[in-house]
Write a structure and sequence with these properties.
alpha/beta; five-stranded parallel β-sheet
């Protein structure tokens, strides 16, 4: 059984708009999403129903120290192929969503030079706020996640096609046009309009819900933008970090404390 002719990757931190981006793009392209197939979850059950090969992949990937070593390559290809063939109708491409710092675009380019990738960032302070306002403090591991955001931030700085989540809200046509161009896919008006239409009708509050999607929820009703819950020490850490300041400046995000709401304290 042949592999899909196209595998396109989206790298991003968590809570950064990766779900709405890949599912909207998948709807426009007619491709399925391989949503975090490298782990850490078994996604053979609802709502994903991925093939058993996905569990084989995530277990092998974990055993390999979350690195794309040679034995991982054929396992990944099997998962992509089976997800593409299970799509109705069978798809010519697959979108791989990887909101982790374990591997990056350079790793994928090394083992799969024909794959295409793009890196997406959302302002890390708002991404963190999305966790804190939901009471998902445990997801931070009790820390500020600076190392995690910095690792993906370095990939973002090196990516000439880099995306900024805030542009999805401000200029979705340009946003999806840049995404398709980064993947080497035609950014036709029909495709861009289809992606925008999907994004306007769905809100992906969590990648572990029904494929992350809640049809009918307004993407404008973003909880993390209605309240502020990031502890002040974390805000100060990010605004003082040299790499984060470089990322913030290039992305057009405020680099001063007055650019953010009042924090809840230490």
């Amino acid at each position: 059984m042949p592999s899909p002719s196209r595998v396109c990757w989206l790298f991003s931190p968590i809570r950064s708009g990766s779900s709405i981006t890949v599912y909207a793009a998948g709807a426009a392209l007619g491709w399925p999403v391989a949503d975090e197939v490298f782990g850490p979850w078994d996604r053979t059950g609802a709502p994903y129903h991925y093939p058993r090969s996905q569990v084989t992949l995530l277990e092998a990937f974990k055993a390999a120290g979350e690195r794309l070593v040679p034995k991982i390559v054929p396992r990944g290809e099997t998962v992509f192929r089976e997800i593409a063939m299970a799509h109705k109708p069978p798809a010519s491409g697959v979108i791989s969503k990887h909101p982790h710092a374990s591997i990056g675009p350079e790793d994928v380019a090394r083992v799969w030079p024909d794959h295409r990738s793009v890196v997406l960032l959302r302002n890390p302070l708002f991404a963190l706020n999305s966790l804190f306002v939901r009471g998902w403090d445990d997801a931070t591991g009790g820390g500020d996640m600076l190392g995690y955001f910095s690792a993906i931030g370095r990939h973002w700085l090196a990516d000439p096609h880099r995306l900024v989540y805030e542009d999805l809200r401000k200029d979705p046509a340009t946003y999806f046009g840049r995404l398709f161009a980064a993947w080497g896919e035609e950014a036709s008006p029909g495709r861009v309009e289809a992606a925008i239409g999907y994004a306007q009708q769905h809100y992906h509050h969590s990648s572990k819900s029904t494929a992350g999607s809640q049809p009918g929820d307004s993407p404008d009703a973003v909880r993390s933008e209605r309240a502020w819950a990031v502890p002040e020490p974390i805000v100060e850490t990010y605004l003082a970090d040299p790499l984060m300041r470089e990322v913030f400046a290039l992305a057009g995000w405020p680099t001063g404390r007055d650019g953010y709401p009042a924090a809840r304290g230490g």
